[in-house]
Amino acid sequence: MADDTKRESYDMVVFCHLRWGFVYQRPQHIISRIAKDKKVLLIEEPWLRDDTRESRLEIIDANLHILQPNVMRIEDIGGILAQYCDKNIATGWFYSASFIPLLEYFSFNTVIYDCMDELSMFKGAPESLIEQEKYLMSLADVVFTGGKSLYESKAQFHDNVYCFPSSVDRVHFAKALNGIAVPSDMPSGKPVVGYFGVIDERINMELVNEVALLRPEINFVMIGPLAKIGEHELAKQPNIYYAGMKDYRDLPAYLKGFDIAMMPFALNDATRYISPTKTLEYMAAGKPVISTPIIDVVRDYSGCVSIVETAYQFATAIDAALQADPLARLAQYNAILEKTSWDATVQKMQAIMTNTVTA
After folding, report:
1. Three-class SS state of 49
2. Domain membership of residue 180 as a residue range
3. How many domains does the chain contain in total?
4. In 3-state terms, what secondary structure has residue 196?
5. Which of 114, 163, 313, 339 could form a disulfide with 144 if both were Cys (CB 3.0 to 4.6 A apart)?
6. Which residues lie below 8 Å from residue 188, measured CB to CB, with a gap of 6+?
7. CA dist., res. 35 & res. 52, Å (int)
């Protein structure tokens, strides 16, 4: 059991349904930047392990700590919190409403809900999540959303909602434009159409399978961990490769090996409100992008992203992208990328938080 020497004074407690060491995405980008100025404890969902009875406190740096609770339920996390932090914390930041039972433990001055996904529509989501979110939004001082579609949904139920679509670390992904080496586990000898990110129910495996059949002269590479689907559900053709999860630091090198980047999302409940972070990451690497008609992608990027619905359209878009002028594409990308960054996003969020506290 942890002792009182581990207890810290934090400025912010973050409740996150995604593990810090999982795919590097919105929570990591935002919270790591906030932690430059504030001391932050991020609490993950329960992680019950048989090899130990202790929870794990991972020290990312002096200002950012990750608590991995070794308990069965979120409700049980409250029983261990006194070992790690005080009850009185300036800010509570929620990525999932499933953590609201922990509100009984804390006393927050400000509650922030950063809604990055419509989690209630994801595979396996508990029915209680809808009511939990209603309760969280009734308590939240500020609601941020990860895209325009989410904003339009949440603004109906709260009068202080701000839209902050996913942004990009442009410098990081632009490394794909320089002389870095393509990793040795990337297939060679054929053009590559690639994807990186979580591989779950949001991916249209039937579409990937069909376009791989239509274009056997192309290698299709899927980089990322499987989540909530099994290997038997994956598209399987000789020219489809699954490379597994890669470290965020290595993604530019893998992107360098892509000739075209793809977002083959299914059109279902889980993708209705998404605003894919990878759209801008692909652009920062200078890659042609092919996507299915995700609402936020269509209305923000249809001028420079090829939108496809069928395998035939996808195959035709591949042919066109391989022949397109890269200079014209880069000019379009630059105009978009110059208007956004994670640094700017977090600065604007912090300004709103400050104004909310002082209002």
Report:
1. coil
2. 170-337
3. 2
4. strand
5. 114
6. none
7. 29
- 149 with 215, same domain? no
Domain check: are 138 and 284 in the same one? Answer: no
Amino acid identity, position 75: E
Specify the pTM.
0.91
Supply the CATH number for residue 313's domain.
3.40.50.2000
Whether 148 and 186 share a structural domain: no
**Each residue's pLDDT tens digit in the chain (359 positions)?**
344 446 889 999 999 999 999 999 999 999 999 999 999 999 999 987 776 678 999 999 999 999 999 999 999 999 999 999 999 999 999 999 999 999 999 999 999 999 998 877 776 767 788 899 999 999 999 999 999 999 999 999 999 999 999 899 999 999 999 989 999 999 999 999 999 999 999 999 999 999 999 999 999 999 999 998 999 999 999 999 999 999 999 999 999 999 999 999 999 988 988 899 999 999 999 999 999 999 999 999 999 999 999 999 999 999 999 999 999 999 999 999 999 999 999 999 999 999 887 65
Q: How far apart are CA 297 and CA 195, in angstroms?
A: 16
Residues 345 and 321 in one domain: no
Contact 109, 135 (CB under 8 A): no
